[in-house]
Design brief:
Order of helices and strands: EEEEEEEEHHEEHHEHEHHEHEEEEEEHEE
Number of domains: 2
Distance between the termini: 32 Å
CATH architecture of the largest domain: 3-Layer(aba) Sandwich
CATH superfamily of the largest domain: von Willebrand factor, type A domain
Number of strands: 21
CATH class of the largest domain: Alpha Beta
Radius of gyration: 24 Å
Shape: globular
Strand order of the largest sheet: 3-6-5-2-7-14-19-18
Largest sheet: 8 strands, antiparallel
Helix content: 10-25%
Strand content: 15-25%
Structural class: alpha+beta
């Protein structure tokens, strides 16, 4: 019997954690290295754990996970284990760019300070497990030059940089506006540049209290229509698709119907136009220069159908700190990747699961109410509910959780995931 190890993670996110699995581990099960001071050969020092690696009961003739280092806790196999092949199950790193409206209404409505405190609390909870960028945006005057300031670093463990940037921001002293379409385009540029060195799922978390502007006025419907178009373009980008979440603050003048349209456009869902936009004037040159891919004379700009999709904006009140933190924290739980790359210990994409024998593997999702063995997930070649294998020409296989299994993995109450495969069906593809 071979033992499996279990990857456990904080109740929010797991990202960038590598599990190394040794195929054909013949004898000993993985054991936790003793902490310093426990004595004995090979004693090592480990930092306090924010996550843990534990050992499950033996399950069949499975490949053993040889080592995993998460939150300072290290698990290793015994010295007699076969080391013929190591397999890594690596979640893809999600990246979230937090984009906060800095128009003067954020101070006029008394939102700025409590929102800042709530957002920083959320960042403190997730920054070790998700790559974060952060920026604020506004604009002023009829020509509306976009004023987007950002931290300059997109990475994990970014709390200190974000806090140092966000905390000292003060009221600008003059009336400013909300050029949302231009700000979204700038955030897209930053995320696409980041993707060159850190590929993986990309998201924008848009936080605003007002209807979008060009800053040169125009009807609300026209500015909102352009925002729908930009959000749809971001999600449909063939190289780096970006999913945008919309967090709305309770300004009485904000249009909830258009916010719902934004939420669906940002998620790639169908959008029904709340109102007609064919009457709109041409986009003025100052704004058109910021959005060169748009034809300034064509309306509607967005793509609309008869029915609105299922997505809703996240409506939060900064005065209700617990609600704000809970809503945004729960939202970010949804960015947890359900796709795991299979690589060897060197990170080379040379690992495959033998075709026709995928169902011999096991996948268990650990929850707060069922941590041992966890909720069993069925292999589903059709990709509806359970897990499947993605075979990519020229690259390693991927294991993807789909349907209800992916939803369960993303549930904040989920604490870990366990993979097990018979030694003989994990193969190393020759170069």
């Amino acid at each position: 019997m071979r033992a499996l190890n279990v990857l456990t993670f904080p109740t929010l996110l797991v990202a960038g954690v590598t599990l190394a699995a040794t195929a054909c581990s013949a004898k000993t099960a993985p054991t936790r290295e003793p902490p310093a001071g426990s004595g004995g050969a090979g004693a090592s020092t480990t930092s306090p754990a924010t996550t843990a690696v534990t050992t499950s009961p033996s399950i069949g003739n499975q490949a053993a996970i040889a080592s995993a280092t998460i939150g300072g806790v290290t698990t290793t196999t015994g010295g007699d284990a076969c080391q013929a092949l190591e397999v890594s199950f690596t979640p893809q790193d999600p990246t979230v760019f937090i984009l906060v409206d800095r128009s003067t209404s954020m101070w006029d409505n008394m939102f700025w300070n409590p929102l800042r405190d709530g957002v920083l609390e959320v960042v403190s909870r997730v920054h070790q497990d998700v790559r974060l960028g952060f920026g604020t945006f506004t604009g002023q005057g009829n020509t509306c030059p976009l004023d987007l300031e950002e931290v300059g670093v997109i990475d994990k463990n970014n709390l200190a940089a974000i806090e140092a940037f966000y905390t000292p921001i003060m009221h600008p002293g003059v009336a400013t506006e909300t050029p949302t379409p231009a700000a979204l385009k700038k955030a897209q540029e930053l995320l696409k540049a980041d993707n060159l060195s850190s590929p993986g799922p990309k998201y924008i978390l848009l936080v605003t209290d007002g209807n979008p502007d060009y800053c040169d006025s125009g009807a609300v419907e026209c500015r909102a229509d352009v925002t729908v178009r930009i959000l749809q373009d971001l999600k449909a980008d063939p190289q780096v698709p970006i999913h945008t979440f919309v967090v709305a603050l309770p300004d009485p003048g904000i249009d909830q119907q258009w916010l719902t349209a934004f939420a669906n456009a940002g998620a790639g869902q169908p959008v029904a136009a709340p109102r007609e936009t064919e009457f709109c004037d041409d986009i003025v040159p100052a704004t058109a220069a910021l959005l060169p891919e748009l034809d300034a004379t064509v309306w509607p700009q967005g793509t609309y159908g008869a029915a609105m999709g299922p997505e809703k904006p996240y409506n939060v009140d900064p005065a209700q700190q617990d609600q704000l933190v809970s809503e945004i924290t729960g939202l970010l739980a949804g960015v947890k990747s359900c796709v795991f790359d299979l690589t060897n210990a060197a990170g080379e994409e040379v690992i495959s699961i033998q075709a026709g024998k995928e169902a011999e593997g096991t996948v268990f999702i650990k929850t707060s109410t069922n941590s041992d063995p966890g909720e069993a997930q069925a292999y589903d070649a059709a990709g509806l509910n359970g897990w499947k294998v993605n075979r990519i020409e020229g690259a390693a296989d991927q294991i993807e959780l789909v349907g209800s299994a992916c939803e369960l993995l993303r549930n904040p109450e989920t604490t870990g995931i366990e993979f097990g495969f018979p030694c003989e069906i994990i193969i190393e593809v020759p170069e």
